[in-house]
Design a protein that fits this description.
It is a single chain. It is built from eight helices and 13 strands. With 255 residues, the protein is α/β, with parallel strands linked by helices.
Length: 255
């Protein structure tokens, strides 16, 4: 097994005393020689961390001692080397910026579908009621270039704040479809799923755990390409390995 454990994790939960919490988390991460980025907001926590398995598992156990983080779950992958250069803990206004303050996932999630169930739907082409299934990619255009679900709908957006207007413009055309929104690890869909319900798209779901969880539980079925990740690995294949250097989009853009 490769020596470096990488985790992606988030949890929507009301947080306060962010300055003190930031200091405590940063001290614990540094003591365990972890690297990556943690975002703290009044609406929750989002993290991408890497380090040795014992230290990273130990950090998660330590964090879950705080009742607010008891339900935190992670998506795991492995790498030969540390993909982050430093350890950052930042305080932000939103975990993922959408500019719709009424959308509050900590007060209740949108309907979700598990990776295994989604594979059943995609194998068949319809949901359990016979409605056509449309995958809705909520990510930015450059992320979609690395890979996405077959025949997925995407909007060539440059930032997530553009998603609400984009999906609203397609509301009528998608009225007779079952929609499954997805992103890298699930966090954007916590908000997009609620927004789609809010504007009346009743037959909409979010993919539980995002693309990374789908890769972990299903693999490459109905997915083409890789998944961009926000660290030096650049993107992950459906087997959760880093993409080969010769396929690097960044390399091609620089050369």
């Amino acid at each position: 097994m490769k020596p470096i454990l990488n985790i992606a994790a988030y949890l929507f939960v009301s947080l306060d005393n962010l300055i003190e919490l930031r200091a405590n988390i940063l001290e614990e991460c540094n003591a365990r020689q972890l690297k990556g980025t943690i975002l703290l907001t009044g609406e929750g926590i989002n993290m991408f961390l890497a380090g040795s398995e014992p230290e990273l598992r130990g950090f998660l156990d330590w964090l879950r001692l705080d009742p607010r983080f008891k339900l935190l779950e992670s998506k795991d992958s492995w790498s030969e080397t540390q993909p982050f250069k430093k350890m950052l803990v930042k305080i932000k206004n939103e975990i993922i910026r959408m500019n719709h303050p009424a959308i509050r996932p900590e007060e209740g999630r949108a309907n979700f579908i598990t990776p295994k169930k989604l594979q059943e739907w995609l194998d068949r082409g319809t949901d359990d009621l016979g409605r056509p299934v449309v995958m809705v990619d909520t990510r930015n255009a450059f992320e979609v270039e690395y890979g996405t679900f077959e025949n997925a709908l995407h909007f060539n957006i440059e930032k997530f704040t553009e998603f609400p207007a984009a999906i609203t413009a397609h509301k009528d055309a998608l009225a007779d479809k079952t929609l499954v929104s997805f992103c890298t690890g699930g966090i954007r869909c916590e908000k997009s799923g609620l927004y789609m319900r809010e504007i009346g798209m009743e037959h909409s779901y979010q993919l539980e755990g995002g693309i990374l969880k789908y890769f972990e539980e299903v693999g490459s079925a109905h997915y083409t390409g890789s998944c961009f990740v926000f660290d030096e690995r650049e993107a992950l294949e459906p087997n959760l390995d880093s993409i080969p250097l010769e396929r690097s989009i960044r390399k091609k853009q620089i050369s």
